């Protein structure tokens, strides 16, 4: 085993170095090579991080929660290893470990933070016991990969070791049920949001009690199945949060909320408040000072297409991933609250990582945008399924002459920037997963060329 371990480690490190020299990012391929040689290498490499491993899983918010927690821990002076760009399956996790381990097999950081795909949790927990496990939420997502939602929840619940402290979203009954019968559980939640309401006609998953099967009663809906709930037929109800956000406000520069004092995150969308609370709770369980938590949240810089900001020549834009109805609806709710004309580029792919079945687009409430609640100047449809999203928007009530199909991602970005007076408006690009990074590369290149152009003009 020792020979296989060292051969796997050095092979993976060398492949990583070669990819770096060639200008490639490369975490997944080195991880693939390494695991072929030594399938249990995660077990050995993870032991070298003295503060242990924190995993973050769930349907939405894994990457942002992980990166927010990294920002907090770095602020507190810890050296952090984490899969920043979301390579969250076993090969990607192995690649992250390779990047943060020396040729002698020693970790280069104090603590390991891992965003983990829900279906990958069992395989990962066979090789390591997380110190903490944060579970963000459960929504219907990629049924062709995961199957029914109950199957995914059971996979995660059964896989988590009894020695792992659970950090659970109290407002999601599907997450909160994982804490039933557990002793070492820490809950977070929101008392109310500006958009919370007593009734909801949104699609929601956790309609029935996990204990007795009766329909849950809500006194307040936040979004989806998240809210204040209880079962009238048994003892199951929203757990009392250890960390609860109150007095929540959203403005153009981000979200503010109170716990013991005021906290701020430079992100839009109330789903990002939950991401911040998940990171806050994990940091609290790691005994991080509240001042470091406050500063770590406040100075967070979004990346990897999660409300990521780009300053291009003449205008700014926001790039944010959309991948299921609930997440997309929350982005739409954020767009509706922006008091500016909107320019939207929606890029839909149907590759394996996106989910082959795109019927979920018909569960997204595009009608909100089409009923004059938002002033939309541009509506560009791109990606492999550009025609499908265009058809969905037509049926949502948008005029056909407002909908433009441009399957090429690069050309769609060009058309987006050709609009006159765009500099005073709000510009958003909303891609599915496999369109996200190609679009991000286009924007990074365009940003670089714009900077060069400005420098030449000033010269």
Task: Give an account of the 3D structure.
The chain has 459 residues and is α/β, with parallel strands linked by helices. It has 2 domains: 45-298, 3-Layer(aba) Sandwich (UDP-N-acetylmuramoyl-L-alanine:D-glutamate ligase); 308-458, Protein-Tyrosine Phosphatase, Chain A (Alpha-Beta Complex). The chain is 38% helix and 20% strand. It has helices at 2-21, 28-37, 41-46, 62-75, 90-99, 121-125, 143-146, 149-159, 173-176, 270-285, 290-298, 325-336, 367-373, 386-396, 409-417, 433-458; strands at 53-57, 80-82, 111-115, 132-135, 165-169, 185-190, 217-223, 226-230, 243-251, 254-258, 262-265, 308-312, 315-319, 342-347, 376-382, 403-405, 426-431. Strands 2-3-1-4-5-6-9-10-11 form a 9-stranded mixed beta sheet, sandwiched between helices. A 6-stranded mixed beta sheet has the order 12-13-17-14-15-16, with helices on both faces. It is globular, with a radius of gyration of 22 Å. The termini are far apart. The model is unreliable at 450-459 (pLDDT under 50).
Short description:
This protein is α/β, with parallel strands linked by helices. It is 38% helix and 20% strand. It folds into two domains: 45-298, UDP-N-acetylmuramoyl-L-alanine:D-glutamate ligase (3-Layer(aba) Sandwich), CATH 3.40.1190; 308-458, Alpha-Beta Complex (Protein-Tyrosine Phosphatase, Chain A).
